[in-house]
């Protein structure tokens, strides 16, 4: 596991270098804040490396908040990493600003030749487009403008980005979480498109930290949502957890534009895991996330990898 004595650790994402070493990038904030609820607006992006996802060597932080004024001058949040054709690495990440009290989220990127030293690119590159997504208002019935947690992957027609977003609409507020979508030819200029899911009575107020991953031949959408932010019908169904999985046929949406049927989401059973990620090690898929609330207290450390498999209906422990 990855546990820091002086910092809380939470959302994480992974990359494997040419030597087979696993790099984890994670949100961290000082335990000196004492109240864990304050950590979000103090977050930076930490970095560690491991040969086996068990024993980690801590490295210098990858990214911290920018000098003001900037779109990311308050905190840097969750992202993902891809490798460009040139061999350079690109990290997409979320930023919030002091000018907006951290209420508006945007997405930008940084680049690196070695996964160690990162340089910000001009940004932001993706923002919530009001044609498709809910924007923040002090009078809103939701607490932020969701445009965060970018997950970037390549398809036949270019690069695609999934992100946490919310739709405008008449649906109850805890049913309006959607999977945001953007597309790019070069990883620099992005077109924000309609979401790849729709609000649903069996849905969620937010669909956080999305990831696409193939397990046992099946494409899966993995995401998380706290029980308090699940819709009423979802809670009445009794199908609540923290991490959820949806089977996927076409990750880019196909002809109808809806790639993810959120009503089909089923929880991955675990006592405390949140913001989990799937990663492959020696042919075995594992899941890793952070330990969340245990005995009423926030833990804030990464778990050891848990082997998993797809049983045809659910993601389960292998």
TrEMBL record:
**UniProt domain Glycosyl hydrolase family 32 N-terminal: residue ranges:** 18-229
Cited Gene3D superfamilies: Glycosyl hydrolase domain, family 43 (2.115.10.20)
Q: Which domain of life is it from?
A: Bacteria
At the highest ranks, the source species' classification is: Bacteria, Bacillati, Actinomycetota, Actinomycetes, Glycomycetales
Q: Which UniProt keywords apply?
A: Glycosidase, Hydrolase
Is Hydrolase among the key words of this record?
Answer: yes
Q: Which family does it belong to?
A: Belongs to the glycosyl hydrolase 32 family.
Q: Which InterPro entries match?
A: GH32_Enzymes, Glyco_hydro_32, Glyco_hydro_32_N, Glyco_hydro_beta-prop_sf
- Give the Enzyme Commission number: 3.2.1.26
User: What is the protein's given name?
Assistant: beta-fructofuranosidase
């Amino acid at each position: 596991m990855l546990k820091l004595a002086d910092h809380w650790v939470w959302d994480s994402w992974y990359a494997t270098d040419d030597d087979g070493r696993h790099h984890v990038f994670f949100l961290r904030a000082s335990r000196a804040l004492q109240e864990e609820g304050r950590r979000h607006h103090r977050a930076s992006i930490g970095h560690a490396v491991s040969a086996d996802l068990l024993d980690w060597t801590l490295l210098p932080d990858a990214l911290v908040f920018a000098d003001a004024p900037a779109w990311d001058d308050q905190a840097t949040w969750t992202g993902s990493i891809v490798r460009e054709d040139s061999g350079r690495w690109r990290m997409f990440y979320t930023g919030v600003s002091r000018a907006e009290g951290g209420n508006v989220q945007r997405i930008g990127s940084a680049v690196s030749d070695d996964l160690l030293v990162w340089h910000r690119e001009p940004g932001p590159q993706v923002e919530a487009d009001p044609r498709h997504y809910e924007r923040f208002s002090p009078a809103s019935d939701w607490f932020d403008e969701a445009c965060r947690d970018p997950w970037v992957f390549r398809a036949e027609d270019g690069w695609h980005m999934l992100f946490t977003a919310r739709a405008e609409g008449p649906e109850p507020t805890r049913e309006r979480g959607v999977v945001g979508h953007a597309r790019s030819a070069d990883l620099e200029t992005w077109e924000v498109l309609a979401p790849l899911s729709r609000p649903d009575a069996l849905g969620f107020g937010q669909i956080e930290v999305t990831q696409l991953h193939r397990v046992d031949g099946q494409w899966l959408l993995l995401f998380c949502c706290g029980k308090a932010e699940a819709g009423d019908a979802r809670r009445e169904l009794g199908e609540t957890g923290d991490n959820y999985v949806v089977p996927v046929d076409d990750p880019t949406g196909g002809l109808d534009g809806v790639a993810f049927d959120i009503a089909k989401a089923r929880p991955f059973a675990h006592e405390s895991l949140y913001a989990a990620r799937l990663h492959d090690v020696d042919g075995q898929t594992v899941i890793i996330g952070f330990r969340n609330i245990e005995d009423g207290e926030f833990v804030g450390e990464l778990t050891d990898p848990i082997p998993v498999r797809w049983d045809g209906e659910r993601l389960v422990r292998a």
